[in-house]
Queue: 2 jobs
Job 1
Amino acid sequence: MPRIDGARVVADLKRLAEFGRYKTGVHRPTYSPQDMQSRHWLADRLAAAGLTSEIDGVGSVIGRAAGSGPHLLLGSHIETQPHAGWLDGALGVIFGLEVARALGRNIDVAAWADEEGHFDNFVGSRSFVGMLSEANIDRARNRYDGTPLRDALQGAGLAGLPRARVDPARYRGYLEAHIEQGDELDTSGKRLGVVTSIVAIYQYRIRFHGVQNHAGTTRMAIRKDAGLALVRLAAAIDRRFPEVAGPRSVWTTGRIALEPGAPSIVPGAAEMLFQFRDADPARLAAMHRALEQLVADANTGPCKVELQTMSQSTPKVMDAAFQDALAAAAEARAPGNWVRMPSGAGHDAQVLAEKMPAGMLFVPSIGGISHHWSEDTREDDIVLGCQVLADAAAAILAS
Amino acid sequence: MPRIDGARVVADLKRLAEFGRYKTGVHRPTYSPQDMQSRHWLADRLAAAGLTSEIDGVGSVIGRAAGSGPHLLLGSHIETQPHAGWLDGALGVIFGLEVARALGRNIDVAAWADEEGHFDNFVGSRSFVGMLSEANIDRARNRYDGTPLRDALQGAGLAGLPRARVDPARYRGYLEAHIEQGDELDTSGKRLGVVTSIVAIYQYRIRFHGVQNHAGTTRMAIRKDAGLALVRLAAAIDRRFPEVAGPRSVWTTGRIALEPGAPSIVPGAAEMLFQFRDADPARLAAMHRALEQLVADANTGPCKVELQTMSQSTPKVMDAAFQDALAAAAEARAPGNWVRMPSGAGHDAQVLAEKMPAGMLFVPSIGGISHHWSEDTREDDIVLGCQVLADAAAAILAS
């Protein structure tokens, strides 16, 4: 059995957290100076572990082991959300580094660029599996300040470097460790989560078309208030969705805008962004039908309601053999203290799963907090997670 | 009895509508070049009618009649909302000009600057009655582009000009004609509205404090979704207010914002602007109590809800004798075809009413449309309205 060095894992995570430190967390947006420093530091650590390391044309850091035979690819991402936590994706990358050191062979390690979507979704992993075109790169802009991705790559010294591409024949598959980000492990007292699937996201833009009018002179009876139509639909969703949702379903209205948005004007148009997530295709379909029915009901009112489907992904099921390997390792190191669970958040593993078997392992998030500088995980859970990942990797390579 | 020249009234209104013409309406924001051209044109028309005209330090155009004895002040405003109608306040100003011509004496005419609030509420009329300080002017900025009012006055050539101030001893009172802006006259087939009072506006900012979190990993049961708390309160208002409101009450949620407003983030904070209007103080108090109760109920939920009262005006009752003079003139010219009614919109008359008796006369808005370029009134209604205003002014001066 491989033996990881827990103190070294924690020390590496703490060293990495110094790049862009913010309170007890990290502010390290993709391609920022702090982010690029952390990538070069990681490339050096991978080289010191005996891997051939490179930073590719979109900033992904990839370390490749020498030797023949099938390899496992381990990784996650190291940039962070603004003013976010010190672990998040960094945990999975440092776990990969430590497992490569512990096994000493056949482990490649990747830190995929911009999983956090500062410029686009899953830039590094999509590029690696061939799902990110040059046109995608041309179009992408920073979501906060509008900087073109091309300019950011140039500024980070990445322009002109080759983009790494997957050789599927090289790999048995991909393993990713991550903090849970929810509170299921923390609340139940479990120490490890073996991910069964990554949930699908159904995302909608709902537009309401009414008639803009004077809020003082327009009688209630003749109004076509687009904002009120929105409130009524959102409230109807709030009443209806608990009846059609599953125990792990989540649904969220993240943005609402009334137009023109002035206190004395009856809104003539309105818009909301609505999404729901689940791992079960039948449940997703039922929620979609419920939403369509609620919109149809809303359309009998004074305003026209338009349901635009922005995206409907499919749940990404994790490889059964990988799940079993992770579960066996978890049971051996923490008997009865682990659980199988879906991931409510998206991860690079769902992209890699397009090309190879993939598996994921969660460690607990204290209080379920993530994407905030106070995010944290107990040190003994970190060490346990890394050991279980190493055990599972060894078992998969030996099988 | 005075005799107005209906063709001249319509011709003047059409000439005025050429400044900033937009489709069949007008785009003439306060202090824009088109707006200033229209003010100079109006000052010339007032002078041609025998009045001493000036444009004061905030852009109000004021024409004063020669002669002794008590005067009546007639007016409204001539700037417009963006891409708005050709009549709105311009109607009342041109009516004043025509009544001054028809009576030939004791009629002063004013076009109050920025009633439409491009920079501040009722800039011209508040300045005239002494309710606009230099500090108010220093602070005011254009609501669309942030231009300081001081800069706009400088650019319009008004900086350094004296601000006109009311001499209450000069006036019997103030009369203002305006389009109704609602559909009550148009729907009922009445041709004139004698305004009983200008409704009060109660305006609120309601803040919701929750916990921002990941929309994929945060279970529904533990969320503190500020956006959802807002939707629930807005829906509760929608259910409750018809029970406490009067037949003419109106209530409006004009703006909603969720923070941070991203599709995959459970909103940590949210805000809505809510207002209601009525002419009856007891009704206003009942609606305020109902809102407070709904907010108290909302505060039993997972988010903290904070009700901030932004403003609570008082209904401005129009002078009883002026109402009777307008009613008698309306009955004489259009027997049975007029109605007493409150104004749901604010008008300069409510500001002038602080210093002198005030009265208002409405003409119908076709389809109830206002603040839109398609706003319109039938020509015979325009001519009738001007004649009734002249009759009432003559009767008041003779009484």
Note: Chain A is about 35% helix and 25% strand.
Job 2
Amino acid sequence: MAWHIARAMDMAGHKIAQVYSRDLKDAQDLAHPYLADALDDIRMLKDDAEVTFICVSDSVIKEVAGHLLQPKNLVVHTSGAISIDVLKDVSPYYGVFYPVQTLSAGKPVNFFEVPVCIEGSNNVAEQQLKALADTVSNQVQYLDSEKRRHLHLAAVFANNFTNALYQEAAEILEIQGMNFNLLRPLIKETAEKVQRLSPREAQTGPARRGDHETIRKHLELLPEGHRKALYQLLTDIISKG
Amino acid sequence: MAWHIARAMDMAGHKIAQVYSRDLKDAQDLAHPYLADALDDIRMLKDDAEVTFICVSDSVIKEVAGHLLQPKNLVVHTSGAISIDVLKDVSPYYGVFYPVQTLSAGKPVNFFEVPVCIEGSNNVAEQQLKALADTVSNQVQYLDSEKRRHLHLAAVFANNFTNALYQEAAEILEIQGMNFNLLRPLIKETAEKVQRLSPREAQTGPARRGDHETIRKHLELLPEGHRKALYQLLTDIISKG
């Protein structure tokens, strides 16, 4: 997350001033390309940054933010699942900057196409955050913490659970000595289809068309276990949909 | 399926000679751009075609093929789920030509990138089918009916079930008044990621990292019902994976 935000901010012309990490090497790796200061002591962070991004695991946001020495300016976290309130004792101005994308360090994405959901502790914070976010993304919108929790849950279905289905498919092939390459174009096209259509319009397959004979034959192929349970549950969901 | 195969064959320089459909208008629509004959009486099909493609619902392949009047040349079906044997009484030469892709009439795909799995009733049929398939796809491979059944099952996970998860995500957003556009870039990137990585390598999220607190909070958001059951099942599967 830090890698992507630093890259997007730099490309938009903002100055990356300081990078803190528990691990000095990590801080240096991130700071180096931007000629920023690298720190492994959070108390050394200067408080003149316009915005401080806290890009850490959900469970330690509160703790890390609590170590900031009386920041006067905007402090934001980047988590989908955590309320804005976790920062309420940290600064007079705080907020959330949540990019809705799966981000891997070192693999650039076109950040302008990444939806960024923002929330501010007050109008001043929110306007500052909106102006900043607009410089890096074309898809900025306000979203309160309650809605963001639901969005994060939906993202788990669209990303983590979808990938788990890819894995189930890969294992079915693997058992039969087939290569996952057979499914890669299908997976890509399945995601492409809902870029224009709604998932409801895009739904096809035996469950959708009520093809009980194919469903019966598929269930015959699946041994008792989690994969069969998943097949049955998803078939029920599509049939009733 | 017929629309895509006709288009791919035509682009590769093959002549589309005749199109049969129960509905004459459908036959004419498909035949017209290729100056092919359109028929709604299957007994009028001339038997001099090098290959006859049967692109119909699984449940009527046998019946439709049975109406062909003693074809001397290759007859193939295009189904992932149906055995080659369904054609054994139809012609001395028969086979299967199964493109592993989700195909919508009128929406062209780059057929050269579509994996095509072929099977022939004997060496002559198989070689003819391989030579033909190689003119339209760069991803042709032999696959027997048993393996093809498993591939078709895996494709249901990778395509139909994946789309059902998109639908679950869309409904979570809809209930909260959020737009599905928020998830479209994430869905695209999730599919992109496994074009190079294996799904196992690409897996992220609360279940993968054992983040019980986030899982607990997600479960709180979900009312009792199929969606919660799906969340729990997929979380278990990822946790154990």
Note: The two ends of chain B are 36 Å apart (CA to CA).
